[in-house]
Amino acid sequence: MAGVRPMLPFHRSLRLALSLAMAVLLLQLAACEEANGPDAPDGVADLVLLDGKVVTLDDEMGEAEAVAVRDGRIVAVGSSAEIGEWVGSDTEVVELDGRLVIPGFVEGHGHFMGLGEARLTVDLSGTTSWEEIIALVEEAVEEAEPGEWITGRGWHQERWDPAPDNTFDGVPTHHSMTEVSPDNPVLLTHASGHASFANGPALQEAGITADSPDPSGGTIVRDDAGEPTGFLRQAAQGAARFAHSRFESQMSDEERHERRLRQVELAGEEALAHGVTSFHDQGSSFSTIELFRDLADAGELPVRLHVAVRGESMESMRERLQDYRMVSYGDHFLTVRAIKRAIDGALGTHGAWKLEPYADMPESTGLPQTEPSTLRELAELALENGYQLHTHAIGDRGNREALDIYEEVLQGVEDHRWRIEHAQHLHPDDIPRFAELGVIASMQGIHGTSDGPWIEPRLGEERARSGAYVWRDLLDSGATICNGTDVPVEPISPIESYFSSVTRVMRDGEAFFPEQAMTRMEALRSYTLSCHEAAFHEEDLGRIAPGMLADLVVLDRDLLTVPDEEIQDTRVDLTILNGEVRYRR
After folding, report:
1. Segments forming the whole domain that contains residue 573
2. Same domain, 129 and 227
3. Distance (Å, whole) CA 427 – CA 415
4. What average pLDDT does this structure show over 25-43?
5. Per-residue pLDDT tens over the stretch 50-79
6. Which tens digit of pLDDT belongs to each residue from 270-312?
7. Which of 208, 234, 266, 312 could disulfide-link 203, Cβ–Cβ 3.0 to 4.6 Å?
8. What is the pTM of this model?
9. How far apart are CA 496 and CA 506, in angstroms?
10. Edge-to-edge, what's the strand order for the sheet holding 66-70?
């Protein structure tokens, strides 16, 4: 009959149905193979790394030889023969020749705009004498206009050898610096950021005289006659910083914007050159976050940023926190869901808040910066808005106060991942509380060896041994450590901080309580996956496995096996961010 299709015999219908079912099954298997293994690539990769040692930090993947990347994500990990199947005519192929591939490093605690600013000012981080500092300032004066402020950062009086004469709290008076810079205010920030040195014109611009009272939480260091020496500890920096800001306000809006863009550019270059693909920025204002958001919208953030809000009033945060909350914004380049606050100062400037007085300054237990009641209010605000809280706490009293507040506020809250930044000196009773409360210990390995030579004079042998930079005790208790450098306090070098973490060897060759060292794999994890866990990013970053974002670093030697003395010689050969080579040595 016209228009009617004849029915197929039963056996032919069954055979056709079985064929169709088998075809569907084969397609499903192919899709599974593409997602879970390198056997059947669909298309070609954008980037392939071959013939290396790939430390994946993925329990299921283990070690491999090669990686394939497409569209910013890892698509396959395996042997070189398997991954070679992903190579096409347009694939960029990197021959590793046995080199090490690891996930991109994370700067777990740094100051992103501060890093950029440090590149624009006088770098004092390598100075080992007061005379060197004076010479650098004198050079800067030759390039400056009269009245222009000269700023710098990175000096530390404990590094001066020999120590200068006629010092007050270990620092000379401003007169020699005023002599080389009589017409230019000079403000030099201590390596810790918790003190500054001002010359005579800067003190004058700040209105600091012999009659100026010490501000709450700060000290204007004075000589025997009661005159300011120029050394401004903690909150005493405020007047000088305000005076410097007043000078900068003379810049046009365009000039300020261009300077901020330059800071971002320089900070990004420095980070990528050291293998850092993600950066936990410990404190930016809403206006700086707006700049980051604009750059993320334009695809111009140089590294991934996890930003903590800082420098905003409680009232401002109550009104605006939700407006700035962003998670994996701009293709995973910008996250803002943390608040940063300091409860105390630094050990080096006797500002850390101690349970007992300093051994070398028995009249002082430090300089608290935030009242516990205020920190508790801030903790409640963070919880209400779905933010993490990052509390700078260095002294054992500061850490205990912060942990007490966390314990009270977080009752019944699961997986909050709140953090204590630095956690440098802990009372032994508080060490297990990090794991018990689920609090991240955000610590900087390089601080341990940089500070090591003067820790015992500050704390005494027993307190130094039982509570200073106790990485081993924290890890053994089950705590998570996120590593970093606190750049620009220290250079942004994961390699240097890794070396400190696994050896605890100081500049003089001695080891600072080496029983507290991390293993090499623990240190690697603390600089990669653990920091991503500390920021809730572990589903996308921190492992080398199919589906993960392709942030990778190629090193010229194997950090996990070379002798200790070779670790510091390790160089970053390639930094790969979002599947693209962003730095090549």
Report:
1. 12-103+543-585
2. yes
3. 25
4. 48
5. 999 999 999 999 999 999 999 999 999 999
6. 999 999 999 999 999 999 999 999 999 999 999 999 999 999 9
7. 208
8. 0.83
9. 11
10. 73-78, 66-70, 47-50, 92-95
* The residue to which tokens 């000078």 are assigned: 247
Residue 348 lies in a domain: no
* Lowest mean per-residue pLDDT among 163-167, 186-190, 509-513, 519-523: 163-167
Name the average pLDDT for the chain: 92
Q: How far is 388 from 284, CA to CA, in rounded Å?
A: 15
My answer on whether omega of the bond before 488 falls inside 30° of 0, hence cis, is yes
Closest by CA to 224, choosing from 167, 174, 163, 157, is 167
**112, 118, 119, 122 alpha-carbon torsion, rounded to 10°:** 180
Is residue 375 a contact partner of residue 314, using CB atoms and an 8 Å limit?
no
Please check whether residues 119 and 243 belong to one and the same domain.
yes
Q: Which helix (H) or strand (E) holds 521?
A: helix 520-526
- Note the Cα 207 to chain centre separation in Å: 35
Domain membership of residue 469 (yes or no) is: no
Total Cβ atoms within 10 A of residue 280: 28
**Cα(278)–Cα(202) distance, integer angstroms:** 37
Determine the Cα–Cα distance for residues 522 and 323; give it in Å rounded to an integer: 37
For residues 95 and 118, state if they share a domain. Answer: no
Radius of gyration of the chain (CA): 27
The CATH code of the domain that includes 221 is 3.10.310.70
Does residue 2 fall inside a structural domain? no
Q: Which of 69, 101, 57 is nearest to 532 (CA)?
A: 57
Q: Are residues 181 and 237 in the same domain?
A: yes
CATH number, residue 65 = 2.30.40.10
User: Closest Cα to residue 443, out of 497, 493, 403?
Assistant: 497
| SS3 label, residue 206 | helix
The amino acid occupying position 491 is P
Q: Which DSSP helix (H) or strand (E) runs through 49?
A: strand 47-50
Tell me the residue length of the chain: 585
